[in-house]
Amino acid sequence: MTPPAKRATSADVARAAGVSATTVSYVLNDTPGQSIPEETRRRVLEAVRQLGYRPRGSARSLAAGRSDVVLLSIPHLSIGPGITRFVEQFATSLAQAGLTLVTHLAGAPGRSLPDVCAAIDASVVASLDPLDDDTAQALRRAGADLVFTTEVEAHPTMRRMGRLQAEHLIDLGHRRLGYAMPEHPLLRRIADDRMRGVAEACAHAGLEPPLALDTKLDTAVMARAARRWRRESVTAVCAYNDEVAIALLTGMRRARLTAPGDLAVVGADDIPLAQAAEPPLSTIAFDLEKVGRSLADAVVASLSGRKPRLPPTSMDPHVVHRAST
Amino acid sequence: MTPPAKRATSADVARAAGVSATTVSYVLNDTPGQSIPEETRRRVLEAVRQLGYRPRGSARSLAAGRSDVVLLSIPHLSIGPGITRFVEQFATSLAQAGLTLVTHLAGAPGRSLPDVCAAIDASVVASLDPLDDDTAQALRRAGADLVFTTEVEAHPTMRRMGRLQAEHLIDLGHRRLGYAMPEHPLLRRIADDRMRGVAEACAHAGLEPPLALDTKLDTAVMARAARRWRRESVTAVCAYNDEVAIALLTGMRRARLTAPGDLAVVGADDIPLAQAAEPPLSTIAFDLEKVGRSLADAVVASLSGRKPRLPPTSMDPHVVHRAST
DNA sequence: CTGAAAGCGCTAACAT
DNA sequence: ATGTTAGCGCTTTCAG
What we know:
The structure is a homodimer.
Chain A: H1 10-17, H2 21-29, H3 38-51, H4 57-64, E1 69-75, H5 81-96, E2 100-106, H6 113-120, E3 124-127, H7 133-141, E4 145-148, H8 157-171, E5 177-181, H9 188-204, E6 211-214, H10 219-231, E7 236-239, H11 242-254, E8 264-266, E9 283-285, H12 288-303, E10 318-320
Parallel strand pairs in A: 1-2, 1-3, 3-4, 5-6, 5-7, 7-8
Antiparallel strand pairs in A: 9-10
Helix pairs in contact in A: 1-2, 1-3, 5-12, 6-7, 8-9, 10-11
Chain A binds a DNA duplex through residues 9-11, 19-26, 29, 31, 34-37, 40, 55-56, 58-65.
């Protein structure tokens, strides 16, 4: 065991390289308007490596007035393979701009988003959907810029997804839709949003609102729901997400109902399992990587002072038509 | 648009409350060994509320020498519903101890874990499985304590999961096992670990190593794999995870094979869909919330200087027996 | 091209 | 019980 070995500081590096802390800072930050001779730069970098030096984030942000940290708020529901791709792309794009991403699972008790933001001193908070006003205000007071993905049409993404599900079904000739609600209470908010989108599309087409049924990830429950929809002459159902849709498909098989003949089903989110369902599940997909990239651009823009008045990006949800519809 | 309204500082609060910054600090931190009169405390708190003041994390950690931030590294693969429950419990428990959790999706290019750690100045980095030595060392040099979940038996969790899958099957009388490998290359490492556990259990029971087949989340591919296993007189297969298992179940149906009669299947991770599969999927579950709690305890312990020599916690994987086996 | 000096906002001795 | 005084490690004018 080495003695607790105090962490190396910028001053240590300066000493080791025979320069001042200022020079170290210049080298490490490529401070513009400075011409450091190659030799000096090399010596500094060498000392940095030697000492395993990493600037302390807190000192940096305190002195500079801004950190290079971006905080992403993930609604705890949408944790899934899609989000992962998105987060990775987002992180990568941010890294290219010298920014560091960390994420916060929202929704749980404990630390609120503004608390976390203040704790890590993030300069930007990003979120897939808008935050409520109080939170947004608190965040801004905590000194953070806010960046969201926003629909061009000013439709929050979730609602738009529901619309797409329904429109797809309606285009196919269905006149009476069902909606499969998720079980978990924390999903309720998003589910309501998504269903609102479905209802809008129905209204727009002159149809009744969808017949919403509470469901569970349980084959028996799903079988029952499927029969109920049939009884009410529903011919197609929008599921809250792909998991619910897949469970519904299973329940239908149990009830000896086929898709899309007896009941058409469309999911949401396009999880990998959707293609391996029987029949393969139609669903709503996003181009998450694109979103990751453009959200990163929006962050960079926001940091450069240009507050883009225009929506930075769209999740660009779109229908993936497969056999269940 | 309000003028950029400089963020309130501790000094602002002090002024507004008619006290010194020290007192503000004392009140906000419940600094032990200080007896602040109720009246003063009230005034300070009032001013804090009034100004929407939140201490700046970077200044705090710089002055105090340690931050209250904990960084969790999530292997980008294991993003799933289970992890979510875990993260939430972990965050909640940490919050009770006054600590703030943020997470980092590991594996992606861009920022390395030590980079992120230094950027946010985390005092503790937690991870579900051990980190490689270089990373661990870099992290320690960056001033962070490290906390992992560790098996009592010193078996990394992933390998232990594989053992459990196999032992379960072997107990049931199966003598020739198959292993369903995932498609994604990034999953390979964990898959290898899990399969190693399966191989160990086989060896221990005097059986041949499992017949590993590469699979995809695709019904046709799975149907083919299932036939192949049957041909090689495999009677039971361990799937990399529940998704793979569910897809396999679907493929088997397509191939007119039943579970567990023609081929027994056991998954891993216990995702919610596992119970809604047909037949309901046997799998390996964790008590993630327990893990979240004890990992938080370990963090707190580590921060109090007691470096627990004993493994802080175990993921406690266990078999969930359902109809597919 | 490089260094000296002044803080950033907060905490922690040390007074009082 | 509260204020004074130093810094924490870094960036950033401003001189040289």
